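Journal club side-thread
Mid-discussion, someone asked how the predicted structure for our own chain would compare to the paper's figures. Pasting it here so we can look after the session.
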Amino acid sequence: MPRFGDILTGRVDRQHQFDKSVVKKQRLAAATVWQTLDIYPFRAGERAWEKYWGLRGALLADDVGGGKTFESLAVIVKDFLETTQTNRERFRVLVIAAPAIRSKWEWQSPGNLKQGDETPATGLAQSRCDLETFLRQMKFPSAHSRTRALFESVEVVKRKKDWKKLQRSMPRQGIWLTSMQALPPTHGRKSRAVFQLAFPHRAFDWIIADEAHVVKSGYAQSEEEVGYLSGSAVRKLYAVLNSCPSARLIMLTATPFQNNAKELRQLISLVDHGTNGERLTDVITAGLDAFSKSLDEFTADPTSVDEKAILKLIDGLKNKIGSLGIENEPHMLVRPKALWLNGNRSGLDDYIRDVVVRNRKLHRATEPIQASLTEQGNLQYLLLRDLVHEEGTEHRTMVSQKLCELVSSPEAFRRKVKKTGSLGARSMMIKANQYRSIEELFGRNVLYDIKKGALIEFLKHFRPHQRKSVVVVYCRFIPTLESLHADLRLLKGKVVRDIVKMDGRDKLDERKKTLRKLADLNNSYVNHLPVIFLASQVANEGLDFDGFSNTVVHFDGHYNPAVIDQRNGRIYRGKNTLRRVRFHQILLKETYDQRIKFIELTKRKMKDFYLGDGPLEAIFETVLEENHEVKRRDLHKLLKFRIDLEPRRAWLLGAAKKQI
């Protein structure tokens, strides 16, 4: 039987084809997940292990393109080879992935590709060949045939009614690939504890949820009833887990923290099925709640932060999570000695690492392309901004959306300015007349012209690097994408070589054709003119552009830093992580564009801390500025603290260390 460490060796045809450090991290991450799923729940002896007995899953939170698919494959292969000796022994895997990202789970060997199928030049085709690459990395030919047969027998379930056929004759071994929308209907009382699906009870042994952040619900308490979320992904996933209580869960997501810590707590709560108050995830979510409360108190009154408060927070983060004020039995707040790194380490960071595994890439900043408004443009912006007004706090989101469209394009803004919400029909007519008057006064949208001009100026000076001539331009709103597409077509042959677009109206087959076309355009590179790939939010996830591009331009920004990272991750993956990549964002100075960027950077501070990318220093800027009484040496200890989620061999139990 092969060793677990041989599954990910980083060697293809006896030559290193991957960055050694990346492969090492993948191997450690896979071993850590296996330890969490196969060793933690079955340990006995110390009372400290009791909270781990209900653990059923782990969260793989690698950066975009960090190898989450291979890491999960390694865990599946290990269990498959060690627990099954014949085809009659049961081994069933359910992979839940959105249709847009399904291709990387629908493996097909390069030798079996038919004429006209995707070629390896496209990012999509490369994902179809992942299985072949993975099998070569496994480095034990004797297991190839069994493993290949398992993964090449993937059955795609695209409709709910298809599950009825599977109930009659379900093979004992295999992989079933479906989406949240194609899962059977749920039944049972409206409580997460009893929701189930209408497929055979205990049908699956493993469940892999790809892009698991889609199941976030946003509600505050993980134990809250989810009946009102009748059509949501979180309800469906709970139903899947309830229908397969003994199945082990692997959740894959590069962005477990998006807008707030509630989403992170929700994902963590899914990996446990113990009783309330006696679960590992209860301790973690209570610690996250207590830490968030402390941050809010410090921010609300920075002058109240003293030496005692700082030392208490440090102790809760590093050593004893109970120092944060969590109400649990003492033994529930102590981790097993086998997991201690340096002495008694039962801090919040150690507990999060018990269920979350993350590999980080070198961070690449997004460089701004700043465009200044003319006097005429500034006047137009102020006049148009005054049209955006709603009464009451419940309409703030609507106002923000309109302001985002205002700094995007006239077509995006025009369709919303007439929707006045609570102001009534009379106000709608007044605003429509005002908008028409502003259009007649200026004759054109100066804001859009300035922003578009900044993009064109960038393209004029663009020079491809590593013979990748495609520039990916992201637009948040489809009307903006349509406007840019029409305007850039006029520059074809002068500033750009060709323009290709993709939005949510394109079907999956059309998206595949688009990627093939982009690869062909890149391969037929003749001059220095770039190919422009205009993409809407549909291209934020699940597609790989690194085969033909290493440049991203954000025409529209976004409040959510996870969205920006997902966009950048389309090219910042594979061999592009070892080469030069460029990220740019067009910003209209002194407009709402800068407000969007400010909110993104503010949220990024929290995201970076919770996911181990940054220390607390950026978060405590206000405390530093307004509290001059606090002792600097104590505050320094706190500011430099960061949660570290990267897997380390020293943290593995003996049984897992022997495997690698």
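Post-session note: The first strand starts at residue 11 and ends at 12.
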